[in-house]
Design a protein that fits this description.
Strand 3 and strand 4 form a beta hairpin. By secondary structure, the chain is α/β, with parallel strands linked by helices.
Amino acid sequence: MGFLAQVNLADIVFLKSVFQLEHLPAVEYPEIAFAGRSNVGKSSLINRLVNRKALVKVSARPGKTQSLNFFLVGQALYLVDLPGYGYARVSQEMQARWQGLITGYLETRKTLRGVVVIIDVRHAPKPQDLEVISWLRERGIFFIAVYTKTDKLSGNELSKQVVILDRGLGVSASERVLFSSKTGIGREKLLECLDSFFL
């Protein structure tokens, strides 16, 4: 039985927002982080993953998440919602602060097991997504790419887009999951992939 099968995902509470690395919670439980461009659907994905409708606030305003948001699951696991990257309308100073917070966390957090990189399947590969995936690879940090919003495309369009993204991001079929927060497609597959972070 995998680690996540032993955790009650519905038993989840918001713990804290962290704006500075020195305010991170005590190193106590394993952690899975969720990264993605602003407005890519991180909040919706986390809500679907834990089968809660509004645990993570979904905002129509990109760039709203400015902190590392920690959620405690079943007294056994932290899910960490990272600030969205690539939002042009925040100041360069703010972008640099986010970047420092995110990279500092990812590079130094000993309990981090892996990162879920969320990518909108409808768009061409974005340089920032490729940068994040390459950066995680270089540092040997486990990741899984999640191509989300698959319900927005027809079967043929989806197949074409998946091939384009796989090539553009250098991702193999075993390194990504096709997902829809709306229908729940891909949820079980994603849970299986997350379980592999604990092997």
